[in-house]
């Protein structure tokens, strides 16, 4: 299967099918200290900001991340996951959700009104060849000086799902199983600070590694 078909069809379908069981991944006891650290950190990152979120999913981070934000637009391709996010204890005076393709944000998201962007556990699913273009069209939706916050998994041997193959451009793939027994091959990358330095072309950024997650912050 071509990598583009995996990213455009297999991966979104996998997350739609996983919606009801997605948040089990956050139950792992050994990850709780990192998760608590990130929740407190996200709350601070978005205080007073108008945030565009890409690939919101079930909204696991939103009670913390939106707490002190001024406005929040969560977007995702899959209605199945946004339906779960709608059930979260959130202030729906300031939090809205919208279906949007993360690779075509300008088609659905009105630009200019955002002074921050957030994508959690998303960048790892962006093929290496699409990273620069994905960031460029995200930046185009934001105000000058906006803060961009990305956060994702680190690869931890013995804990992370193993990478079973790489494609020609270096993307890794995992075999994942859902509770209905179905298996799905999902593109998953583990970017480094050096890769972000190259991608961000001289822009200052902060890349931080926890035990199970990394975070990246910079300004547009
Ligand atoms: C690993 S989940 C991340 C969910 C959430 N941000 C989190 O941190 O828990 C990846 C999400 O990407 C969404 N997704 C997949 N392809 C997408 C696309 N082309 N555009 C927007 N969202 C997409 C899936 O529906 C899923 O909710």
Automatic annotation (TrEMBL):
Pfam families, per database record: Methyltransf_25
Presence of the UniProt keyword Transferase in the record: yes
Keyword field: Methyltransferase, Transferase
GO biological process, one term: methylation
EC number: 2.1.1.-
Domain Methyltransferase: 51-145
Signal peptide span: none
Superkingdom as given in the UniProt entry: Bacteria
SUPFAM superfamilies: S-adenosyl-L-methionine-dependent methyltransferases (SSF53335)
Gene3D superfamilies given in the database record: Vaccinia Virus protein VP39
One GO MF term: methyltransferase activity
Keyword Amino-acid biosynthesis belongs to the record: no
Protein name according to UniProt: Class I SAM-dependent methyltransferase
Organism the protein comes from: Pelomonas baiyunensis
